[in-house]
Amino acid sequence: MSMEIRPYLLHALSPLHAGTGQSVGIIDLPIARLRATNIPFVPGSSLKGVLREARRSLPPAEWEALFGPLREVSGAAGDEAREGDHAGALVVGDARLVALPVRSFLGTFAWVSSPLLLELARRDLAGLDGLPGRMKRLPATGARVGAGSITVSPKQRRLLLEDLDLDAQVEPAVDAWARFLSRTWPEEEEGLRERFAVVDDETMSFLLETATQVETRVRIDPDTGTVVQGALWQEESLPAETLLVGVLAAGRSLRRGTELSATEVLERALKGTALLQLGGKATVGRGRCRLAAWPGVSREARP
Amino acid sequence: MIHRTRQQTRALHAYERVMRVPPGERADYATHVHALGAAVLRNGLAAALAFLERELESEKAKQDKPVGRLLKDLADALLPGPPRMAGVKLPEAVRRLEMSDYMLATRELLQVLVWFRRAVQATFTQEDRSHVADGGR
What distances in angstroms separate CA A19 from CA A41, A96, A236, one per listed residue? Predict the structure, then answer.
């Protein structure tokens, strides 16, 4: 079966809490991370659920063709074949971190990535026009920035992130990545080019653990106006301005009597998806995101 | 020689030290264990330890010294970077680290603190850790 692929950029406009539930670690409510790399991500299932709700205005048959029929019972108990069952035509991949906003002494903050994060993104973005080439691994602790970066001290040529002072060199590939990522935005934003920086993978691993947003929250007893005993917890979020990359794919509709090509499936899934509410804690302002796909599609054959 | 995973080693150290904390120090010890991980994430390792260092000063006149005890327990956790047996001098030792060692020490301390937190929750009574959450909400 032929699939059409549309990579997308997810831009967090407010802190994003795509969590894993309660943990016994330092943080009571941590964010989801990929097991082997510790890279934060937003599960495709989370985004699919949000898109399913956002597309409620579609004709019911098309809506079902895109997302598949809803189970009568949630979870494993409801996972049984039924008459007329079919898979949804839309495949929503995980969105993986590509650039983390990190506090900077100059320029307020920097969008920080690493050769590993960019290489993983390149796999998802393969086939798109203008995709920058491979970023070489940095041999030692340090940073690469684009010409005209506002996050580097002009005299010492240093990137001053949180606690870390990193020697910085200008690298044209950094500019190329910033321009490529911002192509998905309504107007190419100069801010990304001015603040985009690539640090070595070891430093990035450190930032992945220590540069997320951690908040302490409490629950107040309405009778006493004080904190309920034991009701104090730590919550982790990806900071506002975080950038993630993922892939949407589609095949033709498999719903009997509803003919939709892969292109039509993607058009319906993405129409008007500029702003979405993703992840948990929405009622306290978390998860406002901008989703935009790169123009142009690529195709791949799947058995 | 017995081979253990790093998690086992951290767990053994944390439980052994937490069980040594006398009843009179437990509430403060638990509060600092609970707060330190988030403080490291928010402010950085050096700043978080400097906060404990300041608390040491106010502890001098007291009989119970949970902050000094916690710093020693952390220093003895064989963190990569700071010299062993730094004891209450751990904050000073951390301030002197080279950057790559500092990053490594931060990550290791966060892992060690997970076990200190678990040990406190499993060992101390509810009264001992009255300021500590039992988990997320």
Answer: 10, 14, 8
Is B60 within 8 Å of chain A by CB? no
Chain B CB contacts of A217 below 8 Å: 137
Considering only residues A228 and B119, tell me which one the structure prediction assigns the higher pLDDT: B119
User: What is the distance in angstroms between the Cα of A289 and the nearest Cα belonging to chain B?
Assistant: 23
Is B3 an interface residue toward A (CB < 8 Å)?
no
Q: Tell me what pLDDT residue A32 has.
A: 94
**Token code pair at residue B43:** 């402010």
Per-residue pLDDT at B65: 86
A201 CB within 8 Å of a chain B CB: no
Q: Which residue of A has its CA nearest to B110?
A: A26
Please, what sign has the CA dihedral across residues B60, B64, B70, B72?
Answer: positive
Shortest distance between the Cα of A29 and any Cα of chain B, in A, equals 6
Which residues of chain B make contact with A202, given a CB cutoff of 8 A? 100, 103
pLDDT at A103: 95
CA distances from B101 to B37, B45, B79, B82, B94 (A): 18, 12, 10, 8, 9
**The whole model's pTM is what?**
0.89
Are the beta carbons of A209 and B110 separated by less than 8 Å? yes
Residues with Cβ within 8 Å of A89's Cβ and at least 6 positions away in sequence, in order, are A65, A66, A250, A251, A252, A253, A254, A255, A260, A262, A265
* DSSP code string of chain A: -EEEEEEEEEEESS-BB-B-S--SSSSSBPBPB-TTT--BEE-HHHHHHHHHHHTTTS-HHHHHHHH-PPPSS-SGGG----TT----SEEEPPEEEEEEEEEBSSSSEEEEE-HHHHHHHHHHHTT-TT---PPPPPSSS-EEE-TT-SSEETTTTEEEETTEEEEEEE-HHHHHHHHHHHTTSSS--HHHHHHEEEE-HHHHHHHHHHSSEEEEEEEE-TTTSSEEEEEEEEEEEBPTT-EEEEEEEE----STT----HHHHHHHHHTT-SEEE-SB-GGGT--EEEEEEPSS-EEEE--
A26–B113 CB contact, under 8 Å: yes
Mean pLDDT of the region A131-157: 92
Mean pLDDT of chain B: 85
